[in-house]
Amino acid sequence: QLQLQESGPGLVKPSETLSLTCTVSGGSISGSTYYWGWVRQPPGKGLEWIGTIFYTGSTYYNPSLKSRVTLSVDTSKNQFSLKLDSVTAADTAIYYCARRGSSRAKFDYWGQGTLVTVSS
Amino acid sequence: QSALTQPASVCGSPGQSITISCTGTSSDVGGYNSVSWFQHHPGKAPKLIIYDVSNRPSGVSNRFSGSKSGNTASLSISGLQAEDETEYYCCSYTSSDTYVFGTGTKVTVL
To answer: A44 at the B interface (CB within 8 A)?
Structure first.
């Protein structure tokens, strides 16, 4: 059974960089069919797609976050990562990593999510 | 890109059927059969319940069904049960090779 697990600091200071890693177990991140992505949910708000990456490194970003987001993949560790620069309180959210399956928009496996709070 | 529009809340009695709409544009919902629906209990991971407009993943109850007409996709839940009370989100692929979620709908079972 495929499992995804987010990890990283739960508290980040304003103007600094938020860094999270998603570790994939039970399957290879290098499969040619699947993409890997990040979704977040600020407190009291809805889900927001952040970006998606293919194992080759091809990336796709939410236009509203594109200038601050970088996704990367480490196939040797079966992990992919998120970096979000210059964070503000508005970036406080639960961050989820997910697998995009064989069809577009088919996010079929998710991590449990990790709360990241931006505060000094 | 703007979030897809969903009603903030929908309610129904046990056993009834409800429908949640998800309205976008010709650049997302209307342009592709790549609409998914997620059930999201707060504090837990979102669960995929519909993909490609109307397909159900293995293990998802057939009480959930999806459809699309023009720029609006819909999720129907039949035989409403107490366990269905939670949040639901639609998600669509877009012409910019990105994804956009809906605003979310809170389903209440009366």
So the answer is: no
Q: For residue range A82-102, what is the model confidence (pLDDT) as tens digits?
A: 999 999 999 999 999 999 998
Strands A79-84 and B18-23: unpaired
CA B9 centroid distance within chain: 12
Which among B40, B92, B96 has the least Cβ separation from residue A105? B92
Rounded (to 5) percent helix, strand, coil in chain B: 5, 45, 45
For the cut 90, the answer to whether the pLDDT of residue A21 exceeds it is: yes
CA–CA distance from A92 to each of A41, B61, B105 (Å)? 8, 34, 22
- Measure the CA–CA gap between B32 and B53, rounded to whole angstroms: 9
Give the list of residues 6+ apart from residue A78 with CB closer than 8 angstroms, or none: A23, A24, A25, A28, A29
- What lies within 8 Å, CB to CB, of B95 at 6+ separation is B27, B28, B31, B32
Question: Count H helices, E strands: chain B?
Answer: 0, 9
* Angle at the Cα of A37 from the Cα atoms of B3 and A14, rounded to 5 degrees: 75
Show residues of chain A in contact with B101, CB under 8 Å: 39, 46-49
Q: List for chain A the helix, strand, coil content (%; round to 5).
A: 0, 50, 45
Tell me the pLDDT tens digit for each residue of A50-78: 999 999 999 999 999 999 999 999 999 99
Average per-residue pLDDT for chain A:
96
The mean pLDDT value for B25-38 works out to 97
Give the per-residue pLDDT at A68. 98
